[in-house]
Amino acid sequence: MTAVDLRAFVRANLPEPPARVLEVGAGAGRLARALRATGYDVVAIDPGSESEDVRTVALADLEEPAGSFAAAIAVVSLHHVDPLAESCRKLAEVVELGGTLVVDEFDAGAFDHGAAAWWLEQRRALGEEQPQTAEELVADHREHLHPLERIVAELEPYFELGPPVRGAWLHRWNLGDSLRAVEEEAIARGRLRAVGARLVGRRRG
Fold it and tell me: What whole-number distance in Å separates Cα of residue 34 and Cα of residue 30?
């Protein structure tokens, strides 16, 4: 998924501007700036960000009134948010009843030996040797990252979630958009698991 595709997916599922939107794990703030340019009131947070446009606060520590956001976005962020349960409760607290949740994720639970080996092969083809083996990559991811199944389990008490739409994601991890079609073809032929997932939900109540 290119940056344009991601913005289109997010925008298609948000209420109309000037809705107040929370972005969790905003990184450098590019998506937040693009949404602000279309009229949204965006609060972007990421404890590791160095951007002036992003608040360096963890989701669990966010101080905002209950129900103060019409929608929330989490792009490849919930899989490493800690503590996950407390963070999901906070997310539910600050999103208004009936509000929208848009999630774009990497599923660490679907990242198996085949996916790791494929990613390593593409990195080698780009001239970038990696220090870890496929087995080590899988073990590291499963030790440190939350699988989609757990993320969904923590969100479901608060959000009515649609089914996850699986898709290509590995090309977004230091490979480049030129390998998106290659990854999609491998998935379509059953040679590679889809480790990307997109979800849309509504705040219960």
Answer: 6
How far apart CA 66 and CA 24 sit, in angstroms, is: 16
Give the separation between CA 159 and CA 99, rounded to whole angstroms: 9
What percentage of the chain carries pLDDT values higher than 70? 99
Round to whole Å and give the CA distance between 130 and 114: 16
| Strand, helix or coil for residue 96 | strand
- Predicted model pTM: 0.95
Tokens for 95?
């999103």
Architecture of domain 3-109+146-175+194-203: 3-Layer(aba) Sandwich (3.40)
Bridge partner list, 167 = 196
SS3 of the chain: helix, strand, coil, percent, to 5: 40, 20, 40
